[in-house]
Amino acid sequence: MSHVESAVLVLDCAEPEELAEFYRVLLDGKIQPPDGGNRIELVGAGGTRMAFRRDLNAAPASWPRPDDSQQAHLDLLVAAEYLDEVERQIIGLGARPLETRGSAGRTESRLYSDPAGHPFSLRSARHLAKPKSH
Predict the structure, then answer these.
(1) Higher model confidence: residue 29 or residue 74?
(2) pTM of the model
(3) Which residues have CB under 8 Å from 3's CB, separation 6+?
């Protein structure tokens, strides 16, 4: 049996405070009290755990890489009917749409970079349902 309790996606960036705030809003999360170092942790409302580590020499990732090798990226799952709304929100927060080969119009997977240049995608998740209105 493993003693590993959880995993945390750590993104290196020059401004961890700004990037943590971007994902805090996007994931409806809470920023954990800093431990005094150059790392900020976030727990999203759905349990997603992320951390942001200060690296003044961090360079944005390229997507897709010319040699077609896979890079790490974050998939954000969104109910299909909310894709357009979430897209407007993330662009308003500072995300940038990424150009990809073979991408024609609206699809079920949309690629972006966060304000520090890390790639991520919005993916429709048909099993996620709209909350019922009361």
Answers:
(1) 29
(2) 0.73
(3) none
